[in-house]
Each structure stands twice: as structure tokens, then as C-alpha cells.
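Long-time lurker. I teach an intro course on protein structure, and each term I like to show students one example going from raw sequence to a predicted 3D structure in C-alpha cell notation. This year I'd like something fresh instead of my usual example. Would anyone be willing to generate the C-alpha cells for the chain below so I can use it in lecture? Attribution to the forum is fine with me.
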Amino acid sequence: MPALSVSRVLAKLEPGGAQLSVLRVTGALEAMGIRSRLLVGWASADGLDLAARMGVEVEVYGRGGDLQWRADPAFSSWLAPRLAGAAVVHAHMFGAWWAAARVVGDDTALVASEHNALTWPDGRPAADLRASLLRVDRFYAHGPGARRAILGAGLPAARVQPGVSPVADLDAAPLPGLPAPRIVFAGRLHVEKGPDVLLDALARLQGAPPALLLGAGPLREELEARISRLGLGERARLLGWQNRPGRYIAGAAMLVVPSRDESWSQAAVLAMALGVPVIGTDVDGLPETLAAARGIVVPPEDPDALATAIAGVLAGRRQTDLRGARVYARRFSVERIAATYASGYRALLAGARPSLQTAQAS
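-- Reply from a regular --
Happy to contribute to a lecture. Here you go:
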């Protein structure tokens, strides 16, 4: 089998689920003999540190700020010489695949991924969005929201496939000395992840066990103030970004995913693999992840409903199918997901990608 290399373009690099997915797949593909070159639009210091700790070298454009939702022609120009002659380009997030689509050669297989529902903050981007999409040979949509948006923007349905993310540390053991029982949240401290909703729910529960909130992000100071204002004190602890969240999730009473937007939660799937009940919200693809009693689903933005579900799990009144959840979660090991992408890349190179002429006519 001929050697394969992938040029991977990432709109932004920071500690988060999408970035972890990219870095884990990159490392696993390297172990399979598939080299990756990682080109990044914008990176935070924590993101660069995360990549370095995972042994992945990156090249950063670094101008113009966060490129996740922004079409930046200058980023395209920066990418052009770096993508020249690439056999496969896999671009993650709108700002990356839009920029790559403008400059990749006709012989390059272009793969795109959206890890979240497309919510362009400044409105839908330029009119040439459709032209950029039509240059994409395969699109991995991580959740129903992303799929609807991409199909609505003009990508032929035959090119869209479900996005899959790897989950690591599926056999993690609890870190010694953690409180038991405990409630765990693991995710970016960002409004879309809803850690504030969890704090409001905890304030409604007298005698609930401590909650450990893992993650970093722009809401940290606001959450610290909220903990103080709600009188939660030691009942809610912000522990920062943790490279191995499974050590905190394993043995917990539950994992709570109070998101306002969530296409597919790596933290939820990790908890399932570890035999921990999951409570999540009815947003985007999260109900599909927690379907078949793999988890408990509550309305978003509803701390009363979340508090009731937490109390029900603690009291044993609400239960999940832990065995079914574990079977589901094991499908997402890093090695298995990396092999899925490797197979997809090779299929495109073997001639499974449609011609550009077919794309323009469809």
C-alpha cells in the first residue's frame, strides 16, 4: 500500500473537543504510517501547549484572530504554497475549509469537517460559500445541525457523511483522593457548554455532593463570581483544563452535559465507557448520543429540570442503561476512528471522488 500523507488545516487551536479530536487522530495516523502536516489559522498559548504535549508540530498563520467562522482570503493566500501538491487536505471548521477550497489543486482530495452546528456569528458568509462547498469531495458533519446547514448551503447529499470523533482513556481509573460521591462537568468554560446552568441547578439542591468542573475558557471569572454569589463554596470547584478527564469522571456519581449547543459530546461518551450515568440537554445531536436510555435528557436552559434529574440519579430513582452505553462508547476508540478516516482518504485517492465538472453540474 503506497505511503499517504495528509495536510490538515485547523481554523483555530485551543483546548477543546474538536481540537482534541484532530490531535488524537493525527497521532494515531502517525502510528499507522500516515504522516500529517498541521496548519493552523489561529492558536492560543494553551492550544499550542496542548499540541506540544501530544507531540504534534504546528505551523500557525496567526493573523486576524479567531478564524472559526470567518472567511479570510489572506489565510487562503498563506495556505496556497503550503498545500501545493498535497494529495489529501482535511480542513476542520468553516474558516479552514473555506480558505483551503480556494487554493487546493484540482488533483487534491479535499475533505472538510464541522464539529458544531454552523452558527456564523456575523451572519452567513460571502456568496461564494456554495462554490467553496462544491470543491469539497467529502464532508464530515458532526451532528444534525451541521448536516442541515451544509445541505442547505448547496453541498450534494452524496458527499456528506456522519462525523466521528475519537475518545481516549476508555479504561481510566479514578484519581486517588477525589470526593465520593461527586458530580463532574468536563468541557470548555464557554456559554455554549452551559456550566452556569449547572451551577444554578446545584444551588437548588441542598446536600448535593461536590461538583468538579474541568475545563478552561472565557467564562472562568464569571463562574467564580457565580459560585460565590450562589453560596456554593466548596460544593463547586473549578479545576481547570485536565489532559486526562477520565481520571475525574471514572467512579463519579454522574457526568452532567448542560450544553446550549452540542453536536456530539466526547465527555459524555467517555463517561459511558467508564460506566458513569450521563445527564445531557435536548440540543442538536446530544439526544442521539444519549438515545436508547444511554443517558437522561433534560431541556436546555432549565436549571430546575436539571436539578430534578440530578436528584433523581443521586437517589436511584433515575437510571441509565450503563451496559448499552458502554457498548456504544467502545465504538469510538482512537485507533478505530483513525482507521475510519484512513480508509476514507484512501478511497478518495483511489478514484472515489467526483470530478470538478460533475460538482459544478450537480
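Some talking points for your students: The two ends are 33 Å apart (CA to CA). The chain is about 40% helix and 20% strand.
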